[in-house]
Design brief:
single chain, 9 strands, 1 helix, three-stranded antiparallel sheet, about 150 residues
């Protein structure tokens, strides 16, 4: 298998959904009809960093509001690979039901001009699973699983 990673890729990594602050986490959802983007200023926030090995930073951001809504976001950054990972959990820690939560989304707009993108196709349960492809970015392009599971197509 060829290594598609270049020094330019590693340089650009800091611009692709890197952690900057709780307010700038690429998480959005509707809470009681209001659009929430990132962690609101009035939430109590704690941040914990762990380095499971020399090439990985894992950061956990936990935020809660007075009603007991907890947002836990796990961020992973690789020193030797141009990728970041985001995983979010929203939990009611209060005594009463939360307001309606909907339209949960992690992601955003890439903040740079990119001419092409290399990506894997994920597990397709066929011999071509995890093949690599390069696509020109001549129009908007969405990277997401084809059926809502974690890695299909």
């Amino acid at each position: 298998m060829c290594n598609f990673i270049t020094s330019q890729d590693l340089h650009l990594k800091k611009h692709i959904f890197s952690y900057r602050s709780p307010r700038q986490i690429p998480l959005s959802f509707r809470y009681g009809g209001r659009l929430i983007c990132g962690i609101p200023e009035d939430y109590k926030v704690t941040v914990c960093d762990v380095n499971p090995d020399e090439h990985v930073l894992e950061r956990t951001i936990v935020a809660s509001n007075d009603a007991g809504l907890e947002i836990r976001v796990q961020y992973r950054e690789y020193a030797d690979f141009p990728a970041t990972e985001w995983l979010a959990f929203i939990t009611n820690r209060g005594a009463a039901p939360t307001e309606l939560i909907s339209n949960i989304r992690i992601g955003g707009i890439l903040p740079m001009q990119i001419e092409q993108i290399g990506h894997g196709n994920g597990d397709t349960c066929t011999p071509s699973g995890y093949d690599w492809h390069t696509e020109p970015l001549t129009k908007p392009y969405t990277l997401s699983p084809s059926d809502g599971t974690s890695c299909k197509g």
